[in-house]
């Protein structure tokens, strides 16, 4: 049995009167590609934000590789090998592709001073160059990120998350608004990375074709709670899931 990389235990989060996440628990094992699906407003992004310290859950605990990470800052999580993408693009449009990736690495290191005043260390630059190659962005590396197509920017966004190291990468709607060709690229790159590095992924995504073919296991949220969990084929055939989400 593979070890647990991410353990989410009894997470709840309320905003005013809205209970966005209701007592959610799950485990993700090393090397797994877990899909997190559900209707808009079902609590997926809130759950990510609770797992990653952007939000403080009302209740519950999160463990990465067995260590409690509740309330940890993004750079401290990155030091533990955890990277993420946000639902909204977080690239800097006026910086080059390469500099965006390097900057992500500096943020993960928490080296704000070097980010502002210094040159990035050689290790970071080398790592960024490798990711530029891996994500097939080399021909664009000196281009401003804002000049890239939306799909290329989403790929860059993913590359930036990988600067965390990473044991675990959480991707919030990486395929949203991305055309079919780029979608294929993204899926193939994630699968290759997973195979080569045994990196664990948790992927929020609405594109069912993408999520069903990428993920080994799927968790379905509805109104903040888990309503189903299983292999893609089981999820596709689950009547409760069809009623709450897939059928619509
Ligand atoms: P999803 O990512 O599945 O679409 P969200 O986690 O974004 O869902 O939202 C879950 C619920 O929590 C929604 O009802 C949403 O309106 C609410 N919500 C999310 N973030 C906030 C916030 N910062 N303040 C108030 N309500 C929020
Ligand atoms: Mg969301």
Could you name the key traits of this structure?
Rossmann fold, alpha/beta, 248 residues, binds magnesium ion, 25% strand, binds adenosine-5'-diphosphate
Description:
Residues 6-248 form the ABC transporter domain. With 248 residues, the chain is α/β, with parallel strands linked by helices. It has one domain: 3-Layer(aba) Sandwich (Rossmann fold). Helices cover 40% and strands 25% of the residues. The chain contains ten helices and ten strands. It has helices at 44-51, 74-79, 97-109, 112-117, 122-134, 150-162, 180-197, 208-214, 232-237, 239-246, and strands at 4-15, 18-29, 33-37, 59-64, 67-68, 82-85, 168-172, 200-204, 217-222, 225-230. The strands form two sheets. The chain has a six-stranded mixed β-sheet, with helices on both faces. The protein has a four-stranded antiparallel β-sheet with strand order 2-1-4-5, covered by helices on one side. A hairpin with a 2-residue loop joins strand 1 and strand 2 (18-29). The relative contact order is 0.18. The mean pLDDT is 90. It binds adenosine-5'-diphosphate and magnesium ion (MG). Magnesium ion is lined by residues 44-45, 87. The site of adenosine-5'-diphosphate has 11 residues, from strand 2 and helix 1.
Bound molecules: adenosine-5'-diphosphate, magnesium ion
Summarize the helix and strand pattern as letters.
EEEHEEHEHHHHEHEHEEHH
User: Beta-strand percentage?
Assistant: 25-35%
| CATH homologous superfamily grouping | P-loop containing nucleotide triphosphate hydrolases
In DSSP terms, counting alpha (H) and pi (I) runs of 4 or more, how many helices? 10
Question: Helix coverage percent of residues?
Answer: 25-40%
Q: What gross morphology would you assign?
A: globular
**Measured on Cα atoms, how large is the radius of gyration?**
18 Å
CATH architecture: 3-Layer(aba) Sandwich
Q: How does the helix and strand content classify structurally?
A: alpha/beta
Largest beta-sheet characterization: 6 strands, mixed
- Low-pLDDT ranges: none
| Head-to-tail CA distance between termini | 37 Å
């Amino acid at each position: 049995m593979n070890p647990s990389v991410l353990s989410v235990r009894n997470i709840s989060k309320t905003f005013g009167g809205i209970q966005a996440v209701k007592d959610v628990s799950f485990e993700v094992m090393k090397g797994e590609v877990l899909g997190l699906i559900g209707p808009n407003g079902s609590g997926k992004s809130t759950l990510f934000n609770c797992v990653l310290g952007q939000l403080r859950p009302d209740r519950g605990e999160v463990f990465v590789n067995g260590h409690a990470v509740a309330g940890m800052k993004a750079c401290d999580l990155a030091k533990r090998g955890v990277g993420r993408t946000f639902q909204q693009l977080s690239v800097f449009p006026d910086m080059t592709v390469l500099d965006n990736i390097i900057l992500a690495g500096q943020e993960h290191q928490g080296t704000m001073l070097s980010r502002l005043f210094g040159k990035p260390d050689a290790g970071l630059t080398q790592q960024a160059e490798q990711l530029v190659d891996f994500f097939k962005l080399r021909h664009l590396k000196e281009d401003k990120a804002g000049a890239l197509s939306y799909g290329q920017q989403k790929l860059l966004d993913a590359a930036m998350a990988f600067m965390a190291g990473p044991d675990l990468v959480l991707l919030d709607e990486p395929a949203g608004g991305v055309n079919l060709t780029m979608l294929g690229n993204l899926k193939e790159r994630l699968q290759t990375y997973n195979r080569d590095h045994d990196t664990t992924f948790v992927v929020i995504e609405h594109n069912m074709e993408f999520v069903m073919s990428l993920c080994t296991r799927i968790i379905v949220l509805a109104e903040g709670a888990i309503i189903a969990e299983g292999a893609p084929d089981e999820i596709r055939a689950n009547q409760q899931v069809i009623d709450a989400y897939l059928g619509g």
